[in-house]
Amino acid sequence: MRKLVAAVWAFLAGALFLFAYPPFNQSYLAWFGLVPVFFLARREYPFWSGYIWGLTFFGFSLFWVTRLSGIGWFCGVLYLSLYPAIFFFLVSRPSVKLYELWVASIGVILEF
Predict the structure, then answer these.
(1) Least buried of 39, 53, 66, 94, by fewest C-beta within 10 Å?
(2) CB 41 within 8 Å of CB 47
(3) 3-state secondary structure of 99
(4) Which tens digits make up the pLDDT trace of 54-87?
(5) How far is CA 67 from the centre of its chain?
(6) 3 state SS of 20
(7) What Å distances lie between residue 103 and 1, 68, 75, 97, CA to CA?
(8) Whole-angstrom Cα distance, residue 69 to residue 62?
(9) 21, 20, 85, 74: which is closest to 52 by C-alpha?
(10) d(CA 53, CA 76)
């Protein structure tokens, strides 16, 4: 049951983060789309929370790819969702010294 609740929160956070981007342009929602996933990652299921968040965000934001290739969209969403999953898994370790630097470094490395 706890895993289902975490999945629902990750889904809602991904949906809120989606509204921060065009065509909605509600940038203040980016905060509300990331904070719940950070809380979920620090408690339990960091990889799956990040993966569900990524599936939601990329699944809806890359809708335009379906006009080119449905299989390409499916594979792209599955692949791109691995990045937030890995990120939230790696930052779920609060015992790291200089935690803020650790989080920023992991984010930059994964983006690179």
Answers:
(1) 94
(2) no
(3) helix
(4) 999 999 999 888 888 889 999 999 999 999 999 9
(5) 24
(6) coil
(7) 29, 35, 27, 11
(8) 11
(9) 85
(10) 15
Tokens for 13, please give them.
């956070």
Terminal Cα-to-Cα distance of the chain (whole angstroms): 36
Please give the structure tokens belonging to residue 35.
Answer: 């904070």
0.85 exceeded by the pTM?
yes
Q: Cβ of 69: how many Cβ atoms within 10 Å?
A: 11
Q: DSSP for 33-73?
A: HHHHHHHHHHHS-HHHHHHHHHHHHHHHHTGGGGGT-HHHH
Type and span of the H or E element at 77? helix 70-80
Q: Does 96 or 23 have the greater pLDDT score?
A: 23
Do the Cβ atoms of 83 and 37 come closer than 8 Å? Answer: no
Q: In the 8-state DSSP scheme, what is residue 8? A: H
From the number of C-beta atoms within 10 Å of its C-beta (0-12, 13-18, 19+), residue 49 rates as: buried
Q: Can you give the length of the chain in residues? A: 112
